[in-house]
Design goal:
CATH superfamily of the largest domain: L,D-transpeptidase catalytic domain-like
CATH architecture of the largest domain: Beta Barrel
Strand order of the largest sheet: 1-2-3-7-6
CATH topology of the largest domain: L,D-transpeptidase catalytic domain-like
Number of domains: 3
Number of strands: 26
Shape: elongated
CATH class of the largest domain: Mainly Beta
Structural class: mainly beta
Distance between the termini: 28 Å
Low-confidence stretches: 1-54
Radius of gyration: 29 Å
Helix content: under 10%
Length: 402
């Protein structure tokens, strides 16, 4: 998975602009329509407004070290608010809503760390007032890695997956800001798990496999969100979008020693294979894994997956199924066992020709389901994309908002 660094409406840290006003203003407000150019224009403006000169607004955040991660609240002492704008020095804006009684406005999102904001408020008499504040810099910044990548096409089992650099203690606050939209209103849920790396991770999987052609978009509106102790603030938003491709599913049968590729529910081809040796660590994982990457020719060393010096060789047509090292790939050295015995070190091995064919047909996100006897159980949800080994109810229970 590659890191995605996307530019969103600017909210840079470390701004040192001078404070343009105070949080509590007692202003001789002037009509927005302008005034004459002579002396006494302020008086003319006040008369146009038809209100006393000392109308006041207050802002909950003030000064040069205002608390980040808080919504901005603007309050009008008298009258009703007509419009409020809160913008940073680079033109980014915080949207918000005026209260039913018209006396206050609250931003929908929190103020980002290290940012200078200008508040402009207009009342129902068309008078304006301004205030400015700067938030404290983030002591620690949290970042994330998204999968799948932007503008990709993936298989029907591919989840949205987010791995965080730092711990996420306030999972509910983070999850609230993760918005998934699809072209056909696909039902699905976020679930928090531990990634194989040991980091916090949250995945979004549909209730059932995606439908081909579905357009999916994620907006992670995290700028200004505090992930909690040990995690720090997010200081930017993230986004990705992708399309669901062909409905393809691979079935690996440990009893018949065959791999079958299905497309739109119809068998395309079945090839002989040899999977992991039953009865120990060399057995294959069971259940459903999702094709994570087509890695081609790679070096496989058994010491990296805790199997001692069992093997160290270059392997062609490698298709990664788990982080712990289960692949489907070419294994010509095991040709005597294809279709007759499971004798690999955990992977699904095929002839060069069959592995090449499978490699060319499958796409990242296709499910590989291992059936039959002799596996070593289902992989953990964070060992690759193992969420499909849980029922949908079990998966929903992993949401922080349940």
């Amino acid at each position: 998975m590659s890191r995605i660094r996307r530019h969103t409406p600017p909210r840079h840290q470390g701004r040192t602009a001078a404070i343009a006003g105070t949080a509590l203003l007692a202003l001789a407000l002037t009509a927005c329509g302008g005034s004459d150019s002579g002396s006494g224009s302020g008086k003319a403006g006040a008369e146009l407004a038809g209100e006393k000169k000392d109308a006041k607004i207050s802002v909950n955040l003030k000064g040069e070290q205002a608390k980040a991660g808080e919504p901005v609240k603007v309050t009008l002492a008298e009258g009703r608010l007509a419009d409020v704008s809160v913008s940073d020095t680079d033109g980014g804006k915080l949207s918000g809503k005026i209260s039913a009684d018209g006396t206050s406005w609250t931003s929908e999102r929190a103020a980002s760390p290290g940012t200078t904001y200008t508040v402009t408020a207009k009342d129902d008499k068309s008078r304006t007032a301004k205030a400015s504040f700067t938030t404290e810099k983030a002591g620690q910044v949290n970042k994330l890695t998204l999968a799948p990548g932007k503008a990709t096409t993936v298989g029907v089992a591919q989840p949205l997956s987010i791995v965080f650099d730092n711990p996420v203690k306030d999972k509910a606050a983070v999850e609230k800001q993760l918005k998934v939209t699809t072209s056909n209103n696909t039902e699905g849920s976020w679930g928090w798990i531990e990634d194989y790396s040991g980091k916090d991770r949250v995945d979004w999987r549909p209730k059932e496999y995606w439908k081909s052609g579905t357009e999916v978009k994620l907006n992670a509106d995290l700028n200004g969100v505090n992930s909690g102790d040990g995690g720090g603030f997010f200081v930017r938003d993230y986004e990705t979008h992708f399309t669901i491709g062909k409905d393809q599913r691979a079935k690996v049968n440990l009893d018949t020693k065959r791999l079958t590729l299905l497309r739109d529910g119809q068998e395309v081809k079945t090839v002989p294979m040899s999977a992991g040796t039953p009865g120990g660590q060399k057995a294959s994982w069971g259940g459903t894994s999702v094709l994570m990457a087509k890695e081609g020719t790679i070096r496989m060393n058994s010491e990296t997956v805790g199997l001692g010096d069992a093997y160290d060789k270059m392997v062609d047509y490698s298709m990664r199924l788990t982080w712990s090292g289960m692949y489907a790939h070419a294994a010509p050295w095991n040709a005597a066992y294809f279709g007759s015995a499971n004798r690999s070190s955990g992977c699904v091995g095929m002839s060069d020709a069959d592995a090449k064919w499978v490699y060319e047909q499958v796409q990242v996100g296709d499910p590989f389901t291992v059936e039959g006897s002799g596996d070593k159980g289902d992989p953990a949800p964070g060992n690759g994309y193992g969420a499909w080994n849980l029922s949908y109810d079990q998966w929903q229970a992993k949401s922080a908002l349940r």
